[in-house]
Automatic annotation (TrEMBL):
Cell inner membrane is among the record's keywords: no
Domain NADP-dependent oxidoreductase: 21-331
Species lineage: Bacteria, Pseudomonadati, Pseudomonadota, Alphaproteobacteria, Rhodospirillales
Keyword Membrane: no
InterPro entries from the UniProt entry: AKR_Detox_Biosynth, NAD(P)_OxRdtase_dom_sf, NADP_OxRdtase_dom
UniProt entry keywords in alphabetical sequence: Oxidoreductase
Protein name: Aldo/keto reductase
Amino acid sequence: MTDRTAPHPVIRLWDGREVSRLGLGCWAIGGPFFAGDTPLGYGTVDDAESIAAIRCAVDLGIRFFDTADVYGAGHSEEVLGRALEGHDDVVIATKLGNRFDPATKQYIGSIEEGDLRQEVLAAVDASRRRLRRDRLDLVQLHLNTLAIDRAGEVFDALDGLRADGTVGAYGWSTDYPERAAAHAGRDGFVAVQHGMNLFFGAPSLSAVAERHGLILINRSPLAMGLLTGKFAAGQALPAGDVRSNTFGWMDYFKDGRVVPDFAERLERIRHLLTTDGRTLAQGALAWLWARSPRTLPIPGFRSVAQVRENVGALEKGPLPAEAMAEIERLIDRPPEGAARER
């Protein structure tokens, strides 16, 4: 059983602040954006509901929000900036690395095609305007497979911005342990964002984080929504949803439908994730907290109800050891294999 006297999970950040060990990911609230006709967002959004959800999260004690300049072609940052203006106690992490047109909502390429230093400076200035902040707490490189030496150019530019107080710290959104390890010794490099959930435990990247004292920001902690239990095997998603695509990195949905194998694995462990009255989503977050003290999951949201459910996981804390052990026995997780985008 869960120890009801234990405090809810917290994590110490790079600047010494302690925050609840749950952030919120802001991809979905950015709304539609595209690469040509290919949808890259989660469909239409209601900005008023998004702002209400963000403010509800703050009222419930959440102090970490993760976004990216490209989400909604700038719109996610704008919404977050409106909702959090004046909340200096809240940490905002954003990402850069992609070019986009806010007017047409089109992704138009990677910053590696230009002068990286100038691209970084321009991207940081634009994010500061949209987020209504003079200083960005955490800036992450949003190019998963960028060459290690080119990434160094990005971090060199960010070092200059740290020196003038424009950026607090930086990290890399990458699923490649060797990329994270290559720059982990830099003074400003504090976090790696990567795919991690109970279907994929990211042992190699976790080892890098443990070795270098990095924070593991867990993207897709709910497997793009599959671990909420709201999608049945074979259920079709709307054509304007990013999960309707067939990207190679998209494991849990193919051709707009839940992959049956993952749905079957979830059913095997449903009773373990819902121990002590948790919802499935709360159990999936609790699994991440029990996996490593460095995990900081950032589930997405589009409503106040989703925020309340996710934040409710903090009250129950990590899954108990016996549930963790039984999940490992039943999940039938394949070997980690070679690093790849997730």
